[in-house]
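COURSE: Structural Biology Practicum
ASSIGNMENT: Worksheet 4, Part C
STUDENT ID: 0417
INSTRUCTIONS: Below are two proteins. For each, the amino acid sequence is given first, followed by its structure token string. Answer the questions at the end about the second protein only.

PROTEIN I
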Amino acid sequence: MAFEEIQSAVAEGKPRQAARLVEEALAEGAEGTAILNQGLLGGMRRVRLKMQDDIDVARALASARAMKEGMEKLKPFLEQGAMNTRGKILIGTAGGDLHDVGKNIVGYTLRYSGFQVVDLGVDVSAEQFVQAVRDNPDAGIVCISSLLTTSMPEMRHIVQALNGLDNRRSFQIMIGGGSVTREFAEEIGADAYTEDAAAAAEFAESVMGIKE
């Protein structure tokens, strides 16, 4: 099967079609990693490129649902290869935002890439992020997601609170989501901005690497 079909299903926001195409690709013997990287994530990259010219939140959400449905079919095949040996990452959606699809996609991609992921959930306050860092002193990255512009002030507050911790040098702060930009990340003092799940995994690998 051509992975372009899966990409199109995701880019066009067709959840049922995406799930069916993933099942067909698996039945034909395609590797889970190829379906994820060349199919599902490829579709999300196409959405991101379109949104650079025309921001359509409804389309982005539909594509995220299609990605989620495809991932559900793929998950058992990817879990076989997830070893969780590269280090620990905390992830959560900023306070005031109840969206979890993007966060979940990033979290699962990180898990498959070999990281242990602690999911803090949605509507996570600065205090909850700080407590999570204290409870997990071995975490190397804190990921903060935000789809809504209304939650960006809370994301700023979260980053400020994390930057004030005594062990700040022991972890990196990565932010992302539909409302976030690289400029905003720099402005609030985050270490990195990533545009999609693939970029998040690449950043994590560059920062943490494989821990023997």
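PROTEIN II
(use this one for the questions)
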Amino acid sequence: MKKVLKSILCILAVFAMVACNSDDEVEQPTASVSINKTTLNINESMEIHFTGSASDVVVYTGDLNHCYDLREESNYGLVVNKGLFTYAYSTPGTYTVVVVATNHGNEGKDIKRDTYTFDVKVIDDVTTIDKISAPAVLYDEVFATAVNENDWVLALPRKIKYKTSTPSVSLSQKLKFYIESDMSEISIDGKAYATNTKYNLANPLAINVRSHEGSERNYTLYTINYGEFKTFELLGVKGKITRTEYDYSYYEINLEVPAGSDLSSVAPKFTLYSTNEVPYIDGVEQISEQTTVDFTKPVTYKFVCSHPQKPELKLESTCVVTVSVK
């Protein structure tokens, strides 16, 4: 009886060992994915959705430090979280992407893997300008505005408040371009763009951008000065513009006239810098020594300044005139 019992216990132990081994057996993972696209522009996101089965999933993107063939030389894969992996390449080329699915068991001693490999082509066809600026207008960087797909307008003050002085702003300025690709080639008026060159902004600049792929796009940069009074005189008293350091489109003029002056209906005498800038009050064009104004309270002039070679491009500025009596 003891022998029979011993035999039964041995058989049960064997079954238990088999069952235990069966429970500890590592399942073979499956590396299957769906990819949104395999041809990308630089900085465009690639999306990989993991549709397989695995406890751990990493992606070797094939670029610097992430090459699967160099995994024994400190290159590494990037972890997939919740089944979704996104990645963007900043350099054009063809990259081999390897998705590695892994299951572990027996305290990490048993490992099974499956891989999925595909190539992705990254092209650099960037011809879009994101920003243009004059980076050194005294202490400031002044940005141009895109008015349509090809035309940009750079608004510059004639003078600027700098500490206790008001130096003039030159129309000879360096330019800075913000473009998504470092490989795009820029030319201005048919010559290669140089960061240290000062360009004559008095005339429109023809800008060409050529991408790494060879595509080209043309732009024009127009520069317009904010409109302002060159001189302003009321009842024989000359006014002087007061500027702010932060808003180049806003000016003030303060005047003090003799006691007893009637300010209710006065036609100021003024001059302008150019014929393409026009001052308005409440939408009515103002003409020197002809249009009468009530200066018993501050008066707001709106300047509209257009580009002489493209009048539809306009720039607005504001001047507030305040007159006091001695």
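ANSWER KEY EXCERPT:
Q1: The helical segments are 2-24.
Q2: Residues 2-24 form the longest helix (23 residues).
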